[in-house]
Amino acid sequence: MMKDNPQRLSSLSVLLHWLVGITFILLLSVGILMEETDALALYPLHKSVGMLLLAAAAVRMLWRAGNGWPVPLGQPGAMAVVTARAVHWMLIIGTVLMPLSGMLMSGGGGHGLSLFGLDLLAANPDPLNPGEVIPLSRSLAGVGHELHEIGGNLMIAAILLHVIGALKHHFIDRDATLTRMLGRTPR
Ligand code: HEM
Ligand code: HEM
């Protein structure tokens, strides 16, 4: 697999960026909808897609570890470089921690973990209350829930900064940062 170089990002980098990025934004939206409307029908979909995303996000993290970050284009100031790098770290860590915290919340809560109907972890039904479950660990489930909620809000802030940065590169600095992430080679 060709590595990233300053002129061109490898097709794996481009594919994983948009696959993970778009799916992540959809899951954020579905999660907020679930929270706001109690849409129980969306839970299994949210969880299954979230667990699949963990696999792609883990591959991406390994790929970044081996390949390094994309080299900044244009003449960004030191502050811009540091901010972009910090946001990239937040984003890539968040794509792994959001699914993990969700799994901790659901698994620890006794709801089990089901990947499109395939039980990765069985639910723990309450024999005395049909339809209810008994948590495996109330405290771990609580930590998962807390991380999932705080993490979601931090990620929304990071994504906003990230997209503003991408648009600034494209429309104000008029450099090739955005088109490079679309797989094109800057002239
Ligand atoms: C990248 C993956 C994921 C993202 C971005 C994400 C995002 C979110 C967001 C933003 C919420 C609303 C939280 C709130 O406002 O309190 C939420 C709720 C929830 N998520 Fe996720 N999630 C992901 C993966 C998962 C996974 C893998 C699971 C479980 C296996 C999961 C289980 C849940 C549950 C059970 C809720 C509802 C919590 C409640 O009703 O209080 N999520 N998610
Ligand atoms: C839909 C709006 C988005 C746009 C327009 C966008 C654009 C970009 C661009 C242009 C770069 C290259 C930066 C450089 O060359 O230094 C980049 C890198 C990156 N983006 Fe996004 N992005 C978006 C959404 C996301 C989301 C939702 C995430 C994560 C949840 C994300 C995570 C990353 C990461 C970690 C990098 C560093 C390089 C890599 O690992 O692929 N992006 N993005």
TrEMBL record:
It is a multi-pass membrane protein. InterPro entries: Cyt_b561_bac/Ni-Hgenase, Cytochrome_b561_oxidase, Di-haem_cyt_TM. Signal peptide: none annotated. Keywords: Cell membrane, Electron transport, Heme, Iron, Membrane, Metal-binding, Transmembrane, Transmembrane helix, Transport. The keyword Heme applies. It is found in: Cell membrane. It comes from the Bacteria. The chain crosses the membrane at residues 12-34, 40-63, 84-105, 150-167. GO terms for cellular component: plasma membrane. Pfam families: Ni_hydr_CYTB (PF01292). Its cofactor is heme b. GO terms for molecular function: electron transfer activity; heme binding; metal ion binding. Belongs to the cytochrome b561 family. This is Cytochrome b.
